[in-house]
């Protein structure tokens, strides 16, 4: 019984340490995306700089583009500054 409790406590501690790291990686926005070749390919936006991205696509095909989500956020912020009365949200 004692070993079971120790094992359970170790598992809970491990999961508690892993969860914030996963949440951070999901919300972090990296500035460069790898776009694999082919139609319908999914962007991989995990690169801190263009050189990292280019190293990954080297020999594999595809290309590197700036992260479109960052540009989208920038444009939304610009619109909010220009139209401050339209800053409402559905509740």
Structural description of this entry:
This protein has helices spanning 2-27, 50-57, 68-82; strands at residues 32-35, 44-47, 63-66. The radius of gyration is 21 Å and the shape is flat. A three-stranded antiparallel sheet has the order 2-1-3. It contains three helices and three strands, in the order H-E-E-H-E-H.
Gist?
The chain is an alpha+beta fold. It has three helices and three strands; from the N terminus they run αββαβα.
The level of helicity is 40-55%
Contiguous low-pLDDT stretches (5 residues minimum) are none
Which sheet architecture does the biggest sheet show?
A: 3 strands, antiparallel
For the biggest β-sheet, the strand order reads 2-1-3
- How many structural units, i.e. domains? 1
Distance between the termini: 49 Å
- H/E element sequence: HEEHEH
Structural class designation: alpha+beta
Backbone CA Rg: 21 Å
Q: Which word captures the global form? A: flat
Question: How many H/I helices?
Answer: 3
Return the average pLDDT rounded to an integer: 78
Number of E-state strands: 3
Sheet-strand content, in percent, reads 5-15%
């Amino acid at each position: 019984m004692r070993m079971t409790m120790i094992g359970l406590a170790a598992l809970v501690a491990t999961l508690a340490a892993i969860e914030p790291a996963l949440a951070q990686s999901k919300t972090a926005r990296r500035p460069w995306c790898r776009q694999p070749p082919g139609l319908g390919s999914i962007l991989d936006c995990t690169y801190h700089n263009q050189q990292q991205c280019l190293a990954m696509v080297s020999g594999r095909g595809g290309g590197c583009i700036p992260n479109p989500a960052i540009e989208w956020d920038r444009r939304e912020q610009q619109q909010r500054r220009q139209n401050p009365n339209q800053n409402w949200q559905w509740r």
